[in-house]
Amino acid sequence: MLYRSNQWRQSLKQFPNRVNDIMSGNGETIFNLILSGEIPSHKIYEDDSVFAFLDINPISRGHTLVIPKENSPTMDSLSEDAASSLGQVLPKICKAIMKITGAKDYNIIQNNGENAGQTVPHLHFHIIPKYPNSTHSFVWRPKPIDHSDAGELSKAILEELELARP
Ligand code: 5GP
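That is the input. Now the predicted structure with guanosine-5'-monophosphate docked in place:
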């Protein structure tokens, strides 16, 4: 992860006048430079609110990043309009990537926050094709649910969402 995060910091060296903005945490990230065209990218899709391009360090061929044009670091701060636009185009982007790469399977990964592996604080979905000979994996070790905690947890989240309902 450190390697990946250092790598994009290296590429920022070409844009000394934007580095302060980008590093100051004011919402600017390297993806803004990609959106503005200041950093070139291999674009695969664009509309008024969504942009998609190939990852510079692909885990597999066709590894794509799909981002909202809205500046939102994580999913929980994304506006409903931007979320709706993203949700609407994700299926067709996946379909096109699978058709063109020939991959039958894929993972969609979406990291929120540094501790969760996010290195660029502009919300993005990774679409990662998985080929029969792909060696990458996303392994986690599940444990059986604690039903007593789960009962309280689900009730609390349900209530929070009921309160947040417009
Ligand atoms: P994260 O670790 O935040 O979930 O993913 C960030 C992704 O952005 C990484 O996979 C990284 O390779 C990609 N990335 C970082 N900088 C650039 C860049 O300048 N161009 C492109 N195309 N991808 C980038």
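The chain is about 40% helix and 15% strand.
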